[in-house]
Specification:
The chain has 10 helices and 13 strands. Bound molecules: 1-O-phosphono-alpha-D-glucopyranose.
Length: about 280
């Protein structure tokens, strides 16, 4: 079965981005010309997906407004580019009722996904080139769940889901186990889940069986751990760039690096960088 649907969780508070996120969702924070979540929707679109569910929550209405067709009297190139995509995709919204973790948020996608494999793209993460597209290629070969990982410095493992796995071909690993935010001592590797997944619909049953952690949050990684006992699961080592926009340094880096390649502002930014003495 082909991957035809994408789910984008965008319900988290964005506390690491305060006060920028005091009155706007972190997914609406701008990176060069566009809010973060537009990059994510475009990644799904350019991976061939046309049905997208965005999981929002309290204080996230600006996201829905952003994906309305624009009715500005004079349009600019960027809104026209977005309108073209919006003509071709169906975007659905559902609100997570309480902030009970990523696993709980994903549960809201069950009716939308039904019995198909789907792409899960975290709404505050940008990847270049499109990680979802590469993951779909891996899925098409192995026909089971696959999660994108990247190597992180060992002192950062406690910020991520970490996989224990063995290589089966270049950049593809069979997963033995997964652990959410381990301490350095507990971490089975430094391969961190980066926010792009292809999951089979069996994940929903597994999330329902997942016990909440301290604070009542249900972690997706814990659900995937159950799924891994029932069917094979692979990790794919992504070699492109990944920016976590829920983190100020990554957000600033994304702005600078993406601006450098931009036709409108690239030259000016290059000049600025050349002129800065640090
Ligand atoms: C979530 C996941 C974690 C993953 C991370 C990627 O954590 O729970 O497994 O590695 O996203 O950004 P969060 O960043 O929401 O704390």
């Amino acid at each position: 079965m082909k991957v035809k649907k994408a789910v984008i969780p965008a319900a988290g508070y964005g506390t690491r981005m305060l006060p920028i996120t005091k009155a706007q969702p972190k997914e609406m924070v701008p990176v060069v010309h566009k809010p973060v979540i537009q990059y994510v929707v475009e990644e799904a679109y350019y991976s061939g997906i046309r049905d997208i569910l965005i999981i929002t929550g309290k204080g996230k209405r600006a996201i829905e407004d952003h994906f309305d067709r624009s009715d500005l009297p004079k349009k600019d190139k960027y809104t026209e580019d977005l309108d073209k995509i919006l003509d071709e995709v169906n975007i659905f919204f559902v609100r997570q009722r309480e902030q009970k973790g990523l696993g709980d948020a994903v549960k809201y996608a069950e009716a939308f996904v039904d019995d198909e494999p789907f792409a899960l793209l975290l709404g505050d993460t940008i990847t270049f080139p499109s990680c979802a597209k590469e993951l779909i290629q891996v899925y098409n070969k192995y026909k089971t769940s696959v999660v994108a990982v990247e190597e992180v410095p060992i002192e950062k493992v406690s910020l991520y889901g970490i996989v224990k796995c063995r290589e089966v071909e270049e950049s593809v690993y069979l997963i033995d186990d997964l652990v959410e935010k381990p301490s350095i001592d507990e971490a089975p590797s430094n391969l961190a889940i980066l926010g792009r997944y292809i999951l089979t619909p069996e994940i929903f049953e597994c999330i329902k069986e997942t016990k909440p952690r301290k604070g009542g949050e249900i972690q997706l990684t814990d659900g995937m751990r159950i799924l891994n006992t029932r069917e094979r699961m692979y990790a794919y080592l992504f070699k492109g760039k990944r920016y976590d926009i829920g983190n100020k340094l990554d957000w600033l880096k994304a702005n600078i690096e993406l601006a450098l390649d931009d036709v409108e502002v690239g030259e000016g930014i290059r000049e600025l960088i050349r002129s800065i003495e640090v």
